[in-house]
Specification:
The chain is α+β, with helices and mostly antiparallel strands. It is 24% helix and 20% strand.
């Protein structure tokens, strides 16, 4: 079983030059299944326009969303990421309106991935409405996501309609 560790955001580190691609324009790209791709600009708009605390070089985290969120840091070439992607698409439909699921392509959004110190993928950031985000690394099974949704995000599993 993969454990989930608390995640603290730090400023500094390596800053990568952002590639100029269609998805790096600052536009939010909406997929048909309910997950939403983020760029650095849309992250600032929808998730957190994080400010750096000059005294300890930490990022002050203030989540902007109304419902908990999940951010999947992935790459198109990553095998485990390809296993997680359909699970997150299913969960975005099952938890529609209760959990927002975002994706960040680490190849196209290097600066954003660098802000979170992403070194391995998939890396999944779980963001409660209140409190600090939590990071998990590796391909999680669907039941583990549901458990984290319940325990970390405070969102119960949807009840099946009869």
């Amino acid at each position: 079983m993969l454990s989930v560790a608390a995640f603290a955001l730090f400023a500094g580190g390596v800053i990568f030059q952002q590639k100029k691609t269609a998805s790096a324009t600052g536009q939010t790209v909406q997929s048909t299944a309910g997950t939403e791709h983020l760029t650095k600009d849309s992250f600032k708009e929808k998730i957190c326009d994080c400010a750096i605390n000059q005294s300890d070089n930490r990022i002050n985290w203030e989540y902007k969303g109304k419902v908990p969120a999940v951010i999947d840091f992935y790459a198109d070439w990553c095998g485990p990421c390809k296993m997680v992607s359909p699970i997150l698409e299913e969960l975005s439909r099952e938890y529609d309106g209760r959990v927002k699921i975002y994706k960040v392509n680490t190849e196209q959004q290097r600066e954003l991935a660098g802000m979170f110190g992403i070194r391995s993928i998939p890396s999944i950031l779980f963001i409660p409405v209140d409190g600090q985000p939590t990071m998990a690394a590796g391909a999680l099974p669907k039941q583990e996501f549901k458990k984290i949704f319940r325990e970390v995000l405070g969102v119960e599993e949807p009840v099946a309609m009869q």
